[in-house]
């Protein structure tokens, strides 16, 4: 593919509420991010994706926007944001912001006007349907019907997520125009691009047919008529033409439901976005309906297959956004390493495994410290609305409270949203005040300060790994080279990266036992490895437990 500037980025995702609290109110803020720019620069990141900081009632922590063009007061002011953009630029760091345009908050002025007056033009900015009962049986992503009755009227409005997040009506050209104006306003401000939230939900099947009931609540998952529906490409193409194209900006889309044979439309040479997130391996432990109470067993060979299938599909048409964590996922250490989640060797190999895939690597705050899930003792300790819904649904489906809590602890989005531990002081140095969300107990040990002092820490490993990709002797191959799967044993993930100059063979042992992998040829030189040494004997590479090795064909 033609070279594009964003292929060389190292993206770091910030959840502003939990990154750094500069004014000691227990909530992270924009000034807090600005103050920590030196930290991010030292780590080697080149781009920040900042989760929503728009004005919002914070029902879904900012993914429920009540004003697209102002800043939530708890996060600071527009001046603070301008300052952050300017200071980041001076340090060679670009800023990408979340664009949430499938829905707004019900407290957005448009929705308020739509509710107040059925004849207002804003009524058609949203999806209203008459009826005495909900117009169909679709279940929203956060539980319950997708339809919420309008008080005092025989009408319902539609929401794919929470009832405080009414969906916008993309069929309305006036609404689309308003959104494009807002997007261009942000681009003119000097941001480098967007992460598009839940974008494959914008087109609905307008027959509003019922789906096959799939749970004890008698409802049917709304993806049957609201996810990646025919016609979506027309909307996305128009969006791109009217906004992103004019600024040549970067876009990464949260685009669940895009099958690999539809990828070209999304990320091909003329695709809607620079790249999209593929959730096939992040969600390999839960069913396709996303229910936590239907856990799916998985193995390392399965993880390997999912990753490689994704990489090969993406390589056919475009570029990947590689990630193991984000603000909606549990910590990758706990998910993929289980008993070895506290073992730094294992954490490093897991990190290297995804980092050297073909694509742009995304690091979620705290991943560079090897943070693990934060276990909570009761449902009352959780903040996330989707956790509370999954817990209640688990009980409705016949699980005990203890089982429902276990599933919440395993999968909750709050696992990744705990305040960021800067040091071993109270509240991890995140704030002087009690943080908005309880944090993991391990922060006295797992924190930035401690890890910066330890040259063998996960943090130093991330820093070296970033430098190796960005400016090491094999950067061209590691960034731009093609990828091919390699034979791999039961506990190993393996691939090779290749371009005209070189072939690099990469092995990552995610198991607790040593393993021998056949060497593809005799003349191989180590270019990178974890742990003490690289062992090659009689045509075999002997990987220590949790070791990763990259060899170069001579
Ligand atoms: C996306 C976001 C998630 C949010 C949802 C609704 O999935 O990543 O955090 O809750 O959209 O906006």
Characterise the protein shown here.
The chain is α/β, with parallel strands linked by helices and 554 residues long. It folds into 3 domains: 5-102 and 173-379 and 417-465, Glycosidases (TIM Barrel, Alpha-Beta Barrel), CATH 3.20.20; 109-158, Oligo-1,6-glucosidase, domain 2 (Alpha-Beta Complex); 483-553, Sandwich (Immunoglobulin-like). Helices cover 29% and strands 17% of the residues. The protein is built from 17 helices and 23 strands. It has helices at 30-35, 37-43, 78-90, 109-116, 173-188, 223-226, 232-242, 244-247, 263-267, 300-317, 332-337, 344-355, 385-396, 401-411, 448-453, 458-471, 475-480, and strands at residues 11-14, 47-50, 54-55, 67-71, 94-99, 128-130, 138-139, 147-149, 155-158, 193-196, 220-221, 250-254, 275-277, 321-322, 360-364, 482-485, 492-498, 503-509, 515-518, 524-529, 535-537, 540-543, 548-553. The strands form 6 sheets. It has an 8-stranded parallel sheet, covered by helices on one side. A 5-stranded antiparallel sheet has the order 16-17-18-23-20. A 3-stranded antiparallel sheet has the order 6-9-8, with no helix packed on it. Helix 9 (263-267) links the parallel strand 12 (250-254) and strand 13 (275-277). Helix 12 (344-355) packs parallel to helix 16 (458-471) and helix 13 (385-396) runs antiparallel to helix 14 (401-411). The structure holds alpha-D-glucopyranose (GLC). Alpha-D-glucopyranose binds next to loops.
* CATH top-level class of the largest domain: Alpha Beta
Bound molecules: alpha-D-glucopyranose
Indicate the low-confidence ranges by residue numbers: none
- Architecture of the largest domain, CATH level 2? Alpha-Beta Barrel
Integer-rounded radius of gyration: 23 Å
Q: What is the global morphology?
A: globular
Write down the domain tally: 3
**Separate helix tally:** 17
Average pLDDT score: 97
Strands side by side in the biggest sheet: 13-12-10-5-2-1-15-14
CATH 4th-level superfamily of the largest domain: Glycosidases
Classify the fold: give the CATH topology of the largest domain: TIM Barrel
Helix content: 25-40%
Structural class: alpha/beta
Cα separation of the termini? 26 Å
Strand proportion, as a percent range, falls in 15-25%
Largest sheet, in brief, is: 8 strands, parallel
Count of distinct strands? 23
